[in-house]
Amino acid sequence: MADQMQWANALSTHHSLEAAVADVVQQAVSSLTAPADIGLIFISSAFTSEYSRLLPLLADKLSVPMLIGCSGGGVIGTTVKGEPQEIEAEPAISLTLAHLPGVNVQVFHVVSEELPDLDSPPEAWIDLIGVPPSPAPQFILLSSSFSSGIKDLLQGLDFAYPGSVVLGGQASGGGMGGRIALFCNDARGSQHQRLYREGTVGLALSGNIVVETIVAQGCRPIGEPLQVTKSERNIILELDEKVPLVVLRDLIGSLSEQERMLAQHSLFVGVAMDGFKPCLQQGDFLIRSILGVDPSAGAIAIGDRVRPGQRLQFHLRDAQASAEDLELLLERYQSQHSTEPSAVAALMFTCLGRGAGLYGKPNFDSELFRRYLNHIPLGGFFCSGEIGPVSGSTFLHGYTSVFGICRQNE
């Protein structure tokens, strides 16, 4: 077993931080037959006042060279019986450990002030992160919420590390304005046992590892794809050479009464990320919010830049659409990867707006995931923004579940 990749996850709902840490360390370490090379720790915002005690308590019980983690409005883990569990708004800790033979691991922390300009060469980003671009690293990022630099960082990583997978989430606190925490432990250097309040902590994994992603944005398309024929920054001025608001009103008029009700508060725009794909399907769109409309000009403002020539399609989001979207992507993943080496672990980064609040019952996304990828440890947290790729480029999402599925690179 020693030369095989091994992962373990443990979850504890003890209300005492000491007991919770002892519990997850004991469970996770006993599940491995070789020493852990990395750790990922997620702590519920119910422990907000005790964030500073987490790393010292962990160090007392656990020896792991590199570890990152953060706070979340909820945490996700695997129970002793091997079942996934999403713990929302209650004290909980989720610890993932991995033994990674043949994998180079680098840990880093960057703040927005350190980021190169977006017109800088790739070398500026490579110097900042401290990781060579080949073999392509797989990045796990945990960022402070409302971090102004996260979108620039994602763009920079895509530019400097072509072929890399980037996924993760933004730390969340308990409710609006809740304090967040980022944790970074590099036993080899100056970052040993650090608690951060801002920036991004990350792991770069390269070599004998593949991380594949499922990015479930929780929407279903309505109507047909349309082409942007005139726009300015994030404002759509023409769709198929027609007034956007007129096009939208006609579309809503063609919907069922239930869909019309839903469109009043859960209408989104999906921007096609592949300009040349002839038949667009679910998963080909980057979902963005509608920020407002200008009735006099008939224009629509969305939460991203849009340019003439791009295709978009209106979408609706509700619990049913969310469930169907994730199931469709899981089915597609399973059929595309059936001949590859078995997955050994998964990470889940899900929006605070999903979970029991969306579905009316707990553990929905994680149990659906387990139906398709069973018997692998799953760890993660509830984010205030989710990081994952759509059509080869990495974005910050909302209302999304991002899964990272890990396997050996054979």
UniProtKB/TrEMBL annotation:
Against SMART domains, the record matches this protein to:
FIST, FIST_C
Do you know which Pfam families this protein is assigned to? FIST (PF08495), FIST_C (PF10442)
Q: Which UniProt keywords are given for this protein, alphabetically ordered?
A: Cell membrane, Membrane, Transmembrane, Transmembrane helix
Ranges of residues in domain FIST = 35-243
Topological relation to the membrane, as annotated: Multi-pass membrane protein
A GO cellular-component term linked to this record = plasma membrane
InterPro entries in the record: FIST_C, FIST_domain_N, UCP018953
This chain's protein is named Small ligand-binding sensory domain FIST
Q: What is the lineage of its organism?
A: Bacteria, Bacillati, Cyanobacteriota, Cyanophyceae, Nostocales
